[in-house]
Design brief:
By secondary structure, the chain is of the alpha/beta class. It has 25 helices and 13 strands. Strands 8-7-6-9-10-11 form a 6-stranded mixed beta sheet, with helices on both faces. The radius of gyration is 24 Å and the shape is globular.
């Protein structure tokens, strides 16, 4: 919620200092009285603009730009000078702005981060800071932090190791927390753990802003993460930590290490799982099938695949299906073929889904042998759902479920147009990157993203609103059910398995209420349950509007 006055923020800048504070600056919207009271007379053009006037000017200039990266830079510049206007623009134009401030454009922004850098945002904790991480956190200008998004930059989207350039991801994620779920931006902290990079191109780039050294690993890496997590809890008691874009070999271990110690989750594992499960529930409302009757084949066997599979197993367990039988519904294909029990090269997170089966080398062969009802792509390898794969799925299923979830767009397993064309318009399709409406033989399909932004903002808001001491898989299951329940018959009739993005704040509010209910039911909430959960959640949502200062 916006502050009503400068005093409410505990600060009293005047004149040029006020115009340089993005959390307080109103630019040309300062009133005549405010200009006199705050020493702004003469520092601004004479005409007093409304917030709507300012938004129109921003949109006019943004829409003149052709390259998405230039739009990203322009929006970040706006964020740096006027936070209220930035969020007003994003919230009121979410369909247009989300692909700019997050996927797919944020991937390019991360790749170019050192070259487009303008102003520091967030906290940089480097491997050289071991032993004094608490001091770094004390440098953050406020003690009121509700949520931290942290990455070590090793697996940025489908782009790999981008080191400290990965800071673009926490910045973007937290912008979505505010835009999609109304979490106060002043209570958000983006963090990058700069532990070096193994990306030779970055190490050779003089404009790369991270440590110019190879990645830290082993005990030293674990010690730095431990110091950071504990220092964060000391500096900001009860703060929610979201682990983001860590490589597989760290992601599972960190989640296992901290999930029962501090409020935390991994969006790549749990958020992706929940948004995918919600899409599956929506698809099954079209086919009329039951979750227990499906066979799920994943292209990819990393964080996303096993996270989705684990949540499917949890959902089936809630329906009374024994865990071992539930896992038998989920099959993985990795770079070496079908994950089967006789393979001796499997990482621990794959083993629960290594079933007894003869080896299978290719995805197409796996489809022919296993006859899946749902094909889920999370391998970040573009074009792998080719014509043969899609036609095979259509031959085996009246309404094949095809989720091409990898992002950015260049990594998508197939486009929406290809999915509909090669299945005769019968695919129930969702993607991780945005695709426009498709006209297939006169029928207009409106595919929507299986984007984590439908899930993690509401989960975070629910955890914060209830002061949850832990974030559990049951909360993500509740989030998936809540999201699926908000997809209408009209949505599904046009091929949409998710609600319109324009409704995401209401979607997030309802998810938050359902997540908070789990926290209270399980004794994980550190505050008294409100009488009206949804009203309580809505009352906590930040709305970008200008405060009155005089």
């Amino acid at each position: 919620m916006a502050a009503d006055s400068l005093a409410a923020r505990g600060v009293t800048p005047r004149g040029a200092a006020l115009l340089r504070d993005p959390t307080l600056n109103k630019g040309t919207a300062f009133s005549e009285a405010e200009r006199d009271a705050l020493g702004l007379r003469g520092l601004l053009p004479a005409h007093v603009c409304t917030l709507a006037d300012q938004q129109a000017r921003v949109l006019e200039n943004l829409r003149r730009l052709r390259e998405p990266l230039n739009k990203y830079i322009a929006l970040e510049a706006l964020h740096d000078r006027n936070e209220t206007l930035f969020y007003r623009v994003v919230i009121d134009n979410i369909d247009e702005m989300m692909p700019v401030i997050y996927t797919p454009t944020v991937g390019l922004a991360c790749q170019q981060f050192g070259h487009i850098y303008r102003r520091p945002r967030g906290l940089y904790v480097s491997g050289a800071d071991r032993g004094r991480v608490g001091e770094l956190l004390a440098n953050w200008p406020t003690r009121a932090v509700d949520i931290i998004v942290v990455t070590d930059g090793e697996r940025i989207l489908g782009l790999g190791d981008l080191g400290a350039n990965g800071m673009g991801i926490p910045i973007g994620k937290l912008a979505l927390y505010t835009a999609c779920a109304g979490i106060d931006p002043t209570r958000c902290l983006p963090v990058v753990l700069d532990v070096g990079t193994n990306n030779d191109a970055l190490l050779a780039d003089p404009l790369y802003l991270g440590l110019h050294e190879r990645r830290m690993s082993g005990a030293a890496y674990d010690a730095l993460v431990e110091e950071f997590v504990m220092a964060a809890q000391a500096a900001f008691p009860g703060v929610l930590i979201q682990f983001e874009d860590f490589a597989n070999h760290h992601a599972f271990a960190l989640l296992a290490r901290y999930r029962d110690r501090v409020p935390c989750f991994n969006d790549d594992i749990q958020g992706t799982a929940a948004v995918t499960l919600a899409g599956l529930y929506s698809a099954l409302r079209v086919t009329g099938g039951a979750l227990a009757d499906q066979t799920f084949l994943f292209l990819g066997a990393g964080e996303a695949a096993t996270g989705i599979a684990d949540l499917i197993v949890a959902a089936l367990a809630a329906e009374g299906v024994p865990a071992e039988r539930a896992r038998s519904h989920c099959w993985l294909v990795d770079s070496k073929g079908l994950v089967v029990a006789e393979r001796t090269d499997l990482a621990a997170h794959k083993r629960p889904y290594a079933h007894a089966h003869t080896p299978v080398a290719t995805l197409l062969e796996a489809i022919e042998r296993l006859k899946p009802t749902a094909l889920i792509g999370v391998a970040a390898t573009g074009g792998t759902f080719n014509e043969d794969v899609l036609r095979a799925m259509a031959r085996l299923n009246e309404r094949p479920i095809v989720f091409a979830l990898s992002n950015p767009t260049s990594k998508s397993e197939c486009t929406a147009e290809h999915a509909y064309r090669h299945t005769g318009g019968r695919a129930l399709f969702a993607s991780g990157s945005p695709f426009g409406a498709v006209n297939h033989e006169g029928k207009i399909f409106v595919p929507r993203q299986g984007n984590n932004s439908y899930i993690f903002p509401g989960v975070g808001l629910g955890a914060i609103a209830s002061h949850a001491r832990r974030v559990t898989d049951e909360m993500f299951l509740a989030a998936a059910r809540s999201l699926a329940a908000q997809v209408t018959d009209a949505d599904r009739a046009q091929g949409s398995l998710y609600p319109p993005l324009a409704s995401v704040r209401e979607v997030s509010a309802r998810i938050a209420a359902d997540v908070a209910e789990v926290a209270y039911a399980r004794g994980l909430a550190a505050r008294t349950r409100p009488d009206d959960m949804l009203a309580d959640v809505r009352s906590r949502m930040y709305e970008p509007k200008y405060a009155t200062y005089a």
